[in-house]
């Protein structure tokens, strides 16, 4: 039996390059990409995607939709790393740790949509608490996140590593219209009744994310505390290989969060901080925006789908 043919469409971008790097030495698959001269040839791209077993799309949203529309071979399975299909019916959300049954859903799916980098942290924190009833669906959620500049793709890398890098900003908050495309994805998959306020930013480091969600205990049930929130997350991720919840004593001893702490891995660390005097809690997620936030997650989903084929 020949090794499954995996086609990366868009391997020249930041996510595609990282996926290719993670897969290039694998012997259980045959990895395929298009030559530079063929990447914009619609006919050649359609031939390639219809000839593969699993296609990984690392494309802008419009191009990802075009690639999917070009599929006529019903045997082709897809992992889409763009945001084109993250809230679309018929697509399985590729966050294996989201629910106990999610790995099997991903493994058997024909169409898997890779989570966004920021939503991975936000949903990872919020969905278990929502499901457990510790956070009401109508709670006014606000999210702040800082990503490495690679989150902007090649434009961000060029700005900070190219000829004009000396003029690159050290820090910039964006999305000030509060209309970021990740907000509907977070609302849908975290189970929120209302759209969250989401404020993203870029720092002058290449990769890594720190994402935080503040909570006011006065707006929650009297029996909800930092300890109950931490315990809920710890239970939910007890058997997860790539999502880890900091014990309360470790969080209590922490004085800062380093967005680069898990770079180069597919891991995510969740923590719960609190100030009992003021009744304030801070939920946090730290992970690599190119790891668990993109390429690492795609490879994790690919492994689940390959295991299902055997």
Question: What's the arrangement of secondary structure elements?
Answer:
Layout (H helix, E strand, L loop, with lengths): L4 E5 L4 H10 L6 E3 L9 H10 L2 E4 L3 H9 L7 E4 L11 E2 L8 H7 L2 E3 L3 H15 L10 E6 L6 H8 L9 E3 L8 H9 L6 E7 L5 E8 L9 H11 L6 E3 L2 H6 L14 E8 L4 E8 L3 H19 L1
Helix pairs in contact: 1-10, 4-10, 5-7
Which residues form runs of ≥5 with pLDDT under 50?
none
CATH second-level architecture of the largest domain: 2-Layer Sandwich
Give the helix/strand class: alpha/beta
In the CATH scheme, the class of the largest domain would be Alpha Beta
Q: Quick check: average pLDDT?
A: 94
Distance between the termini: 10 Å
Structure, described:
The chain is of the alpha/beta class. It has two domains: 5-114 and 294-309, 3-Layer(aba) Sandwich (Rossmann fold), CATH 3.40.50; 117-289, 2-Layer Sandwich (Dihydrodipicolinate Reductase, domain 2), CATH 3.30.360. The protein is 34% helix and 21% strand. It has ten helices and 13 strands. It has a seven-stranded mixed sheet with strand order 8-9-7-10-13-12-11. Strands 2-1-3-4-6-5 form a six-stranded parallel sheet, with helices on both faces. Strand 1, helix 1 (14-23) and strand 2 form a beta-alpha-beta unit. Helix 1 (14-23) crosses helix 10, helix 4 packs across helix 10 and helix 5 (117-131) packs parallel to helix 7 (182-190). The radius of gyration is 20 Å and the shape is globular. Pathway: Amino-acid biosynthesis; L-arginine biosynthesis; N(2)-acetyl-L-ornithine from L-glutamate: step 3/4. InterPro entries: AGPR, AGPR_dimerisation_dom, AGPR_type-2, NAD(P)-bd_dom_sf, Semialdehyde_DH_NAD-bd. It is an enzyme of class 1 (oxidoreductase). Catalyzes the NADPH-dependent reduction of N-acetyl-5-glutamyl phosphate to yield N-acetyl-L-glutamate 5-semialdehyde. Keywords: Amino-acid biosynthesis, Arginine biosynthesis, Cytoplasm, NADP, Oxidoreductase.
């Amino acid at each position: 039996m020949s090794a499954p043919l995996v086609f990366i469409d868009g391997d020249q971008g930041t996510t595609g390059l990282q996926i290719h790097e993670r897969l290039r030495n694998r012997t259980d698959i045959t990895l395929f990409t298009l030559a530079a001269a063929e990447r914009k040839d619609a006919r050649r791209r359609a031939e390639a995607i219809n000839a593969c077993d699993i296609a990984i799309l690392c494309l802008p949203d419009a191009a990802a939709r075009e690639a999917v529309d070009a599929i006529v071979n019903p045997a082709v399975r897809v992992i889409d790393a763009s945001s084109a299909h993250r809230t679309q019916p018929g697509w399985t959300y590729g966050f294996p740790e989201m629910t106990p049954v999610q790995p099997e859903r991903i493994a058997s799916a024909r169409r898997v949509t890779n989570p966004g980098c920021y939503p991975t942290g936000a949903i990872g924190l919020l969905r278990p608490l929502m499901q457990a009833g510790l956070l009401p669906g109508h709670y006014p959620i606000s999210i702040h996140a800082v990503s490495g500049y690679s989150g902007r793709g090649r434009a961000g890398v060029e700005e900070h590593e190219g000829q004009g890098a000396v003029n690159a900003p050290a820090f910039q908050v964006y999305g000030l219209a509060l209309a970021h495309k990740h907000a509907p994805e977070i609302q849908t998959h975290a189970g929120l009744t209302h759209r969250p306020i989401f404020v993203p930013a870029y720092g002058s480091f290449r990769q890594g994310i720190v994402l935080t969600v503040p909570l006011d205990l006065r707006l929650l049930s009297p029996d909800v505390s930092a300890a109950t929130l931490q315990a809920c997350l710890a239970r939910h991720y007890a058997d997860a290989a790539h999502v880890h919840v900091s014990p309360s004593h470790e969080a209590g001893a922490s004085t800062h969060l380093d967005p680069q702490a898990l770079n180069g891995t597919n891991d995510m660390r969740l923590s719960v901080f609190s100030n009992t005097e003021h009744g304030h809690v801070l939920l946090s997620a730290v992970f690599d925006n190119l790891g668990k936030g993109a390429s690492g997650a795609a490879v994790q989903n690919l492994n689940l789908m390959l295991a299902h084929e055997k």
